[in-house]
Amino acid sequence: MWRKIILTFIILILSAGVALFVFKSEPKLNKNFEAEKTFFKNHSFRLGLDLSGGSHLIYKADISGIPFGQVTDSMNALRDVIERRVNIFGVSEPVVQVQGGGFISGGEEKLIVDLPGITDVEKAIAMIGQTPLLEFKVEAPQNAPQEVKVGPDGQATLDIRSQFAPTELTGRYLKKATLEFDTNTREPKVSLQFDDKGTMLFAQITKENVGKIVAIYLDGAPISTPVVQEEITGGQAVISGSFTPTEAKLLVGRLNSGALPVPIILLSKQTIGAILGDDAVAAGIKAAIIGFLLVVLFLIIWYRLPGLVAVVSLSIFIIIMLTLFKLIPVTLTAAGIAGFIISIGIAVDANVLIFERVKEELRSGRTIPDAVLVGFSRAWSSIRDSNISNIITALILFWFGTSLIKGFALTLGMGVLVSMFSAITITRIFLSVVNLNSESKIARFLFSSGISK
To answer: Per the record's keyword annotation, is Cytoplasm included, yes or no (predicted)?
Structure first.
């Protein structure tokens, strides 16, 4: 018995410490947040676009030059590149997703980019636009049509871009870029290393174009037009030109962060204000508090002393969940908060199943300690089966759902797992400590409602 009492005090002390961590690491609750240690400052709640405000961008991908069978892979590569790019700028949990060319998107391949915390749309556009599009082009056939530019003075010049034809080799196959200096002139140059597929393509291109120009294009403009002397099988290319060391270093950084495998065009931009986000957070907190208080009222009125124990266990469950949200960390959206609130109801459901089983055992004439022991044992199978079904549902939603649905599924799944611990372990320990050995009517009244011998 003493062991259980000591364990109860340890759980309560740890819960109080965790609750203090949640309070001190949240700027909206802690007035002295700026004076706190770095650990607390780095673990505030991470809010999604709908709660913190930010930028919502929709891009159209130009897939006209990509074979039909490679569109999906190219779009996935584009998504990964954009994610790496915005992560470099410290954007918290960017959401980048591909919208396929089906009926909903009007047959176009689109890229949806959500940047929480970035309310300056032009800055967000610059983040995406700074990602370079790297292309390798060969000399166009002699019978290919040539484009002519007419200048302001009326003089016609041949457009250099029409003299080159695109190849399959793009920045999609770039493995890494490094800054080097010419040993003779000390001029900076950028060395490119391709992956296995890129190495094969580059070897084929150079083999077929010995003595011809293979132009290197960056963001649609030729930056280097070297003449191929021989087949290059090592998968390396060099960009040289009138670079300053700073420009070359910047280009290397941009290429390593991701060269766009597909050109993109901005279709729409939208700013979600922080005020709307604050209102959504306030509404979610209000709903959670009201729901929690109603649950507390029900448990105490209907189950009395066990209900009070369940309230303490439920409070610890909420503290654990909030701590996990901060430490993992979980990006909270409005849907995620909804999943958390539902998980509170699931945690209560487990306690209700246990207490109803205990009531049945008490009605059958068992003593309170025996009724608690048997009640937990009989309720476990129902709790286990219902929670497993909830976890399976959460996994399916997380695997197949959109980013909005994933937030709901994640918090719901976490809540189900933690609720099993709080209901089965914490509630059981607390009930063992407050267990009433007396078989008086007062003891039975305190322990449960509607019970008669």
So the answer is: no
